[in-house]
Amino acid sequence: MINKVVLVTGANSGIGLALCERLLGSQDAEGLHLCLACRNMRRAHAARSALLGAHPAAQVTLLQMDTSSISSVLSAARELQLRFNRLDYVYLNAGIMPNPQFDLKAFFRGLFSSSVITMFATGEGILTQKDGVTPDGLQEVFATNLFGHFLLVRELEPLICQPGQTSQLIWTSSSNARRSAFSVEDVQHRKGSEPYSSSKYASDLLSLAINTRYNKLGLYSSVICPGFVMTNLTYGILPSFPAFLWTLLMPLLWLIRVFTNTFTLTPYNGAEALVWLFNQKPERLDPRAKYHSLTSVLGHSYTQPRQVSPITLSTFRCASNDVAPFFLILFPDGCRLGHVTGAL
Ligand SMILES: NC(=O)C1=CN([C@@H]2O[C@H](COP(=O)(O)OP(=O)(O)OC[C@H]3O[C@@H](n4cnc5c(N)ncnc54)[C@H](OP(=O)(O)O)[C@@H]3O)[C@@H](O)[C@H]2O)C=CC1
Ligand SMILES: CC(C)=CCC[C@@H](C)[C@H]1CC[C@H]2C3=C(CC[C@]12C)[C@@]1(C)CCC(=O)C[C@@H]1CC3
Whose CA is nearest to atom 14 of ligand 2? Predict the structure, then answer.
């Protein structure tokens, strides 16, 4: 019997896969149906086999979905409506940071500056990316990390906004999300060099907007920060730095935990806040909090809500006028897909 249906995007590796493992290993696993939404079916099958290897009785199904493609998201949403009559949790986790450029000079300057801890906690000032354009004509990072997920949410309304039932959306955001990287004049960050940071900030805003509009329909949205986790995404930041060198650096990375609890490092620890939210009553959550996966010096992982920082909050209030057009783009009444993409 199915009690809860959980959809996870980007579930075939890293934090998404660790989340699936942890959910299946938890006490509430009975009656859980996990649907892994992945763009690459070969990797999706490998992930499913690994999960079933450890939990042979688990209900794990696969769904092909490329969040950067409008047609793929639309057909995945249609397929979900055929397969399920409700979705209890939707983890919007798939994400990319393409062609990252690591500024070594800025890194060494940062090491000897007062902002060293912020640099390690957020990667601020040392990372830029070169974005591409998808066949739909959208910016790749924006389309993958934000827009495809937003479109999915809109298309899944019949499954996630049902009378007498609550559903949760949980976004994997980032400590790299920065207000200053986001502009309503350039929502997709076409002109800048930090599309990743911008897309993650936009997901924080979008989650707030979703709560304003959908809470009355029983749909709740939260954002989490997994911390700094060693995954394919982070290995890509220093491509000339082979994985075994990262392994050699592990003692140093553990040591850095003395200064910042954001070095969660393993996908298991990074998934902490995602698992924590699974067990919460969404009505009791603070919609303005960001839930952080943190790990102590001794390796104990825990979840901590952090209010959106005062700077961001006050900027958000001051910026409510310039943020409004962003929401208008996202939530025009009776909006049709063509209007949304056309407006962008
Ligand atoms: N690692 C870290 O330190 C941090 C990560 N995050 C966020 O965590 C999330 C998970 O990343 P992480 O586990 O680190 O990295 P991984 O690269 O291991 O996982 C990313 C997942 O997203 C999938 N994905 C990428 N593009 C698409 C697409 N177009 N359609 C569908 N799926 C896609 C990947 O699939 P495929 O295998 O096919 O590439 C993969 O399954 C991301 O949103 C990332 O931004 C946030 C903060 C820190
Ligand atoms: C000693 C040593 C070699 C440390 C690693 C330095 C940097 C490569 C990392 C320090 C902080 C990291 C970080 C990220 C990437 C790698 C670092 C810059 C992210 C930006 C990865 C993606 C995110 O969403 C947030 C991460 C914040 C911290």
Answer: 123
Tokens of 31: 């009656």
Distance CA 98, CA 96 (A): 6
Question: In this predicted complex, what is the ipTM?
Answer: 0.98
Neighbouring CB atoms inside 10 A of 212's CB total 12
- For 102-126, the pLDDT digits (tens) are 999 999 999 999 999 999 999 999 9
- 196: annotated active-site residue: yes
Which of 172, 178, 194, 228 for mutating ligand 1's site (highest number of atoms within 8 Å of CB)?
172
- Write the DSSP assignment of 34-69 as a string of letters: EEEEES-HHHHHHHHHHHHHH-TT-EEEEEE--TT-
DSSP per residue over 182-202, as a string? --GGGTT-SSSS-HHHHHHHH
Question: Does the beta carbon of 175 lie inside 6 Å of ligand 2?
Answer: yes
Write the class of the CATH domain 4-97+137-226+273-290+307-343: alpha beta
Reported as a pLDDT band with limits 50, 70 and 90, residue 326 is low
Q: Which residues on adjacent β-strands are paired with residue 223?
A: 171, 290
